[in-house]
Specification:
The protein is α/β, with parallel strands linked by helices. A hairpin with a 6-residue loop joins β4 and β5 (260-261). α5 (113-123) packs antiparallel against α7. The chain is elongated and about 130 Å long. It starts with a helix and ends with a helix.
Length: 640
């Protein structure tokens, strides 16, 4: 038994020694092979080759001294790490990012003002404020010989071209373009990057953008900056403070990179629908450029120059004699698409051209596109071969069945159709109903002639300006036959009004009661009646103080039982003493008034500068009357 145990141990020892010897021999031979290949220049060690690649990339970059120092340290660390170590891949990924950033690389600046103007006009109609600001930017760069980065913020309703103008600006300046949206962003790491200690750590969006565009002076478009979120991972709006500060972003510190990145020559363009939700410190760092809605004549030009050709091409009707008449586009604007932007108008035009394409195909007007001679010859050869094959297999039912099951040639399936020149189709205004359905808006106004107690106000929302009617009626009469002093009228409101607007209605009611007492102490209208004040479109929430003068005028018109002029609209915040205070969004409100056929606008005197800055085509045919005290309003609206 002991002999058997000794023999077994001896056998196991010999097997182990044999395996160890084999591994040592293999290792020794592999190292010799590597050394021979290295001497011959056939192959280098994987780690050494990687380090050489990183160093070659770094030599081609103009790294700042601080970044170069970090790079050398990381390369030295990588040289002493085993490839199997977990730290090896972390260091390798970091060096990969460090050598892929465009240190010292810049796009050639284009200071050609006439070309920039042509590019901006090609892509967008109107938007003169934006175009003027970009031309100023180019002119300053031409004088200085270099362009510093700026932070612009385009604010306006949806569909006015905020995002697309960013691409045009990049094309006009000859810069690379990168866009990312921060709408609903709740993680600071998306902006500032993750720490390298985390698994799957990555730099933030800005560093990723620089890697993608491979230049240090791109145009970065930060979309929907007014919709930033806030979560457990921090406040991204606060993280953007460093990024969008011209005094700080020359040494932007990403958590992953941990080296200063110069963003001072990046042109940041932000977009937003409103500024109310943007934090004050962040808003202070940006230059606000407001984009208002388009007028009907501007929409007509945009549709004919941009939207219709794009929709025509998308529908496969390029080159065909299919068009929209000016009257049809005007009817679309007035009866279907009254919003401030042109996105809905674009959808309707695309729908019209799709219906036109369907009509052409169903009528059999379209013909196949002629193919070239070479393709014709090849097709004939293919057809002959197929016929010969079919003749050979005619006697074989099975083969015939298989031939019938063969799919059609892809080139035949994908063959384009074209509309002959002899066919023409023009969609007129009277035919719109068959293409896009019945009109959404039957009239430009809720009231053609406003009755007593009804006044048109002007409102501003994130969608642009709109007309806002204020209605007031006598609900009931208070019985005061027993006691003259017991008569107490009151006001109640409906229309889904916000807290501020409810206060405005109460204030307007109190002011008009005091005004009637001062003018005619014998008039007991408000003391003897219960008044109901309503703002139509009750499903839409409304708030803000700018309807104060409108509510007061509606109540005064009801008390005097006299209607006001039907072509008057007004806006302004009212104080308890009758002072009219400044409001916002005058341009959008003026555009809305013009759409509704208003000829006279009453606005606060503090907004005179805003009125004077309005383009002539916006104010055309409209009288503007600045109001400082409410007593100036009744004579202008026919209540005096």
């Amino acid at each position: 038994k002991e002999l058997m145990n000794a023999q077994l141990q001896n056998k196991i020892s010999k097997d182990v020694e044999a395996k160890i010897s084999k591994r040592q021999r293999d290792f020794y031979l592999m190292e010799q092979l590597k050394g021979i290949k290295r001497e011959l220049g056939l192959e280098s060690d994987g780690k050494d080759k990687l380090i050489e690649q990183f160093k070659a990339k770094a030599l081609a970059l103009a790294m700042p001294d601080e970044v170069k120092k970090v790079f050398d340290e990381e390369v030295g660390k990588l040289a002493h790490l085993e490839p199997a170590a977990s730290e090896f891949n972390v260091t390798r990924n970091y060096l990969d990012w460090l050598t892929q950033l465009p240190w010292g690389r810049f796009s050639a600046e284009d200071y050609d003002l006439p070309r920039a103007r042509v590019v901006l006009d090609e892509d967008h109609y109107g938007l003169e404020d934006v175009k003027q600001r970009i031309l100023e930017f180019i002119a300053v760069g031409k004088l200085r010989g270099a362009v510093q980065g700026k932070i612009l913020c385009f604010v306006g309703p949806p569909g006015v071209g905020k995002t697309s103008i960013g691409k045009s600006i990049a094309r006009a300046l000859g810069r690379e373009f990168y866009r990312f949206s921060v709408g609903g962003l709740t993680d600071v790491a998306e902006v500032k990057g993750h720490r390298r200690t985390y698994v799957g750590a990555m730099p933030g969006k800005v560093v990723q953008a620089l890697k993608r565009v491979q230049t240090e002076n791109p145009l970065l478009l930060i979309d929907e900056i007014d919709k930033l979120g806030r979560g457990h991972q921090g406040d991204p709006a606060s993280a953007l403070l460093e990024l969008l500060d011209p005094e700080q972003n020359n040494a932007f510190l990403d958590h992953y990179m941990d080296v200063p990145v110069d963003l001072s020559r990046v042109l940041f363009v932000c977009t937003a629908n409103v500024t109310d939700t943007i934090p004050g410190p962040l808003l202070d760092r940006m230059e606000i450029i407001r984009l208002s809605g388009y007028l009907a004549d501007e929409k007509l030009s945009i549709a004919q120059k941009y939207l219709a050709p794009q929709a025509k091409e998308a529908a496969g009707l390029e080159g065909a004699s299919v068009s929209l008449s000016d009257e049809a586009v005007d009817a679309l604007v007035r009866s279907y698409c009254r919003e401030s932007g042109v996105r809905n108008l674009k959808k309707h035009i695309e729908k019209i051209f799709r219906k036109a394409a369907l009509k052409i195909i169903e009528s059999g007007v379209a013909v196949p596109v002629p193919v070239s001679a070479e393709k014709t010859g090849a097709a004939e050869t293919t057809d002959s071969a197929e016929k010969a094959e079919a003749a050979e297999t005619a006697d074989k039912p099975e083969a015939t069945t298989e031939t019938e099951k063969k799919p059609a040639d892809a080139s035949v399936l994908a063959q384009r159709m074209t509309v002959p020149d002899s066919y023409s189709l023009e969609v007129s205004a009277s035919e719109l109903k068959g293409y896009v359905g019945p009109p959404v808006f039957d009239s430009d106004r809720l009231y053609d002639t406003t009755p007593a107690g009804v006044v048109m106000g002007l409102a501003w929302t994130s969608m642009g300006g709109s007309a806002l009617y204020i209605e007031s009626v006598v609900e009931a009469t208070v019985n005061n036959s027993d006691n003259e002093n017991s008569a107490h009228g009151r006001l109640h409101t409906t229309g889904q009004l916000g807290d501020v607007m409810k206060e405005s209605s109460t204030l307007a009611y109190t002011f008009v009661r005091s005004l009637m007492v001062r003018r005619d102490p014998t008039n007991q209208f408000f003391g003897r009646h219960i008044i109901h004040l309503h703002v139509p479109e009750g499903a839409t929430p409304k708030d803000g103080p700018s309807a104060g003068v409108t509510m007061a005028t509606a109540l005064l018109s009801l008390a005097l039982n006299r209607p006001i002029r039907p072509d008057v609209a007004m806006t302004g915040e009212l104080t308890l003493t009758g002072r009219v205070l400044k409001i916002g969004g005058l341009k959008e409100k003026t555009i809305a008034a013009r759409r509704s056929g208003v000829r006279r606008i009453l606005f606060p005197k503090a907004n005179v500068a805003d009125w004077e800055e309005l383009p002539a085509n916006v104010k055309e045919g409209i009288e503007g009357f600045p109001i400082e005290w409410y007593e100036q309003i009744p004579p202008l609206v026919g209540l005096e």
